[in-house]
Every structure is written in structure tokens, then in C-alpha cells.
Amino acid sequence: MKISLHTSLYIINFVSYFYNYIYTMASENIIKTETIEREMTGLFRDAFGIDNTSITRLPQAGGDRIYYRLTNIDYNLSAIGVIGPDIKENLTFLNLSKCLKDAGISVPDVFATSNNGRCYLLEDLGDTNLLDLIKKGENTEIEEICIKTLARLQTLPKEIWSKKVQFPRFGSRQTAWDLNYFKYEFLKPSSIVFDEELLEKDFDSIKNTVEEWPEELSGFMYRDFQSRNIMIKDGKPRFIDYQGAREGPAIYDAISFLWQAKANFTPDRKETLMRIYAREFSRIRGVSEDKILLGVPFMTLLRLLQVLGAYGFRGLVEKRSHFIESIPVALSNLRQIVEEGAADGLPELKRISLILASDRRFRQEQANTGLTVKVYSFSYKKGYPDDFTGNGGGFMFDCRSMHNPGRYPQYIHLTGRDQPVVDFLEDHGEVFTFLKGAWIMTDAAIDRYISRGFSSLQIGFGCTGGQHRSVYCAETTARHIAQKFPKANVRLIHREQGIEENLSGHI
Prior knowledge:
It is a single chain. This protein has helices at 5-48, 87-102, 130-136, 140-154, 158-161, 172-187, 196-211, 251-258, 267-285, 289-294, 296-317, 321-339, 347-358, 419-428, 430-451, 469-484; strands spanning 54-57, 66-72, 77-83, 110-113, 119-123, 218-221, 230-233, 236-239, 246-249, 372-379, 394-398, 456-463, 489-494, 499-502. It is 50% helix and 15% strand. The protein has three domains: 5-123, 2-Layer Sandwich (Phosphorylase Kinase, domain 1), CATH 3.30.200.20; 161-362, Aminoglycoside 3'-phosphotransferase, Chain: A, domain 2, CATH 3.90.1200.10; 372-502, no CATH class. The strands form four sheets. Strands 1-2-3-5-4 form a five-stranded antiparallel beta sheet, sandwiched between helices. Strands 11-12-10-13-14 form a five-stranded mixed beta sheet, covered by helices on one side.
């Protein structure tokens, strides 16, 4: 095939433009990174009067802040550099750090702050947080210290901290934001059918309750008090990430701590720690423990809706595995409190909460059971199957190039599980070539996943309607895997038919 001179020049120009664009974007990112790192090392020099600093970017946490560790081995110095895009949050954190430290709360020292307020340098508290200890079943005494410290923090005189925060009291408007976070980032993407008018009526009831929260049960609201935000240094807890602090219902923070999905406290442990918290709060404020605990079910419901919104955005949208992995536990917690009556009087919210908690897509996988392979059939018109394991998905095969039995009247109401459709696809022969190529890739991956101790792999077969070709291919592939890899747990899911089967041990 001959290509004209005009076409050749067009291709050359396009390729040149493409590479220039990529080079420019890469250069801008390098320059931006260099500028940030230069600003950080400048702060380190200002704080300690030392050059020759090494700088390493740390893994990103839940928010949008970026963290660096700056060290100078010769002088045995280390600090954490933080870049926060939200200047109001930065100001709150920096202003609170001093007054909380003066009040006896263990927070990190602030060494330096940039003139523009977007960067600051903190005391390096190490890499171990309380969640790490909880997962190991260690130092339960620290959990009790933390929950008692929370009560003392929340009951500090208002004049000490109120002018340091940049955000208004947590009331109906802020509650509306959290509820909408749940609705738009988790509920709607889950495709659960609900009555929006009735749900908003329930939301109004929740907002009114928060707006009327008793003054004696309010105080310093940490907003994100959880074990990941408590660092352990020299065996003692140090508190971080209070940049979202404001005045609000105090019990909210205790619930954030005790119902954190990854911490996975037992019901007995939650009750014990909540009693310790209530006793300390009561001792300082003079409010009865029973009155403090009365708000636990309601505020637990609100907190769980907020975190599900966060898990939806950070996990399902941004694909951060930590948040995806937390969804099943959060939904299990939601089911528990709803069944105990927390959503009584909120009929639509109660209904959809129980539906979400029962949704098999969010089912928590059993731990230490080896590799689970989920094989899907699906319709491309309805999008790829979701992955809620944190693994990010796997193989997706397009069956639409094969002859479609769905075009013929006699097959319209059948699926790829029915013998006439099976015969149609196998008689034409192309399905065998298609699956042979797919299995070369999937078999090799499964073999490696098992040997390396991986826990999850997803394989999908899609066609136009998710009814004939994809169903046959998923069905055949799942049974092939179950037979060839008996160590794997194989789950067959025909999404558009609403069929799910566990093939492990049945082949």
C-alpha cells in the first residue's frame, strides 16, 4: 500500500506533536516536583541551619496532602514535610498544633511553615500508627489512653481552640454535605433503586437532629479521629490530622475511632472503650454517662454514611485499594446498627441500607482461603464488572466478534447456558479458537497468582447483551479453571442474569 507525500508529512507532524506533548508534560511534572522539593529542603535549612538533606516522598494517605521525609544522617535529624492544597485546613492544623500542645495534648512539633501557607515541616513521628498495633492485637492499653485523651481534648475550654479553627460548627449544612457524599459517591454508583424524595425526607430528619444537638454534649470535634491518625513514638500515642476540626457533637469522634472498618473492634471491645470514654467525658463535663451514650446509635449511622461516601469516592472512583477493602466491614457495621434500630423512623434510609448491606458485590471475602477467581459474563452496554477487592480487576475479553445467536428468533429468550445456544456456538467453531487464546493468558496468570500467594483475580467475558456468547465463555472458562486449578476458589457470576455460583469443590 502506497502512502502519499501529504499523508506521510501529516503522520510525521502528528508523531512529532505527540512526542513534544509528552515531553512537555513530563518536563512540567519534573519541574513541579523539583520546585516542591527545593521548597521543602529550604524549610529544613531554615529550621535546622543544615544543608545536604535527603528527601523521600512517602505513600499518600486518604486525603490530598503529599508527604515527604527529610533527613540528614550526619546530624541525626529527620522531619516530615507536608504539602496541603487546602490553605484553610493547613491554617487550622498549624494554629491548633500550638494551642493543643500547650494544653497537654501530644501533637507533633511544627518546625517551619512556608510563606504561602501550603507547606510545613513537622516532627517525624516514625512509621508506626495505632492501627498497626491493633491489627497485631498489641497494646490495648494505648487504645484506652487514646479514648480517654479524646474526652479530655473535646472538653477543653472553648476559648482555647475556637478561634484557631477555620470551619463553622458542625450543623445541618455540614450534615447535608456528608449525606450527599453518601448519596452521590456510594449509593447512586451502586445502582440501587431508591425513592429520592423519601430519602431526602429522612435526610432532613437527620439534619434537624444534628442541628439541635445539646450544647453540653458538644465540644472540640476532631472530625477524623481514627487509629491511622494516631502515631506511636517511644511507646506513646501522638495525634495528627486534626486539620478538619471544628465545634460539634463530641460522640461523633468516639464513634469514628471505634467503628473504623480496618480496626474491626469486636462488639465487646467497642462497648468497653465507649464506656471508658463516656466515664471520662462525664467526669469532666458533669453530664450523665447514660445521656452521653444515648446518642451513639444515631451518630454511628451518620458516621457510617459519611465513611461509605468516602470509600465510594476514594475507592470506587479513585481506585485506592485501602478504601475498597474497607467497604464490606463498613456495610456489615451498617447492617448491625440498622437492625438494632438506629434507622427506625427513617424508612427509606433503613430500606436501602439493608439492601446495600446484603449486596453480594460487596461481600467480604474469607481470609486466608487462597486465590479467589471471579469469572463474569456481562453486557458492554452496562459497563465493565466492578471490582471491590482492591486488586483493580484483571482480564476482560470481548466476545462481540463472534457470530451472535441473539440475532435469531429461536435463541432470543435463551442464554449461553442453554443447549441450543451451546450447540450454535460450538458448531460454528470460532468459540474454541477464542477461548484457547484467552486460556493461554489466564492459566499462566492463575498459576503465578497461586504460587505467589495472591488472593484475588477477576476475569470477564463481555458481549452485546451479556446473554449468549459471554455467558457461554464465562461458564466454560470457570469450569475449566475449577478443574485445572483445584486450589483456587472459583466463583461464576452471570451479572445480567443475576446468577452466581461457587464452583470450588463441585467439579
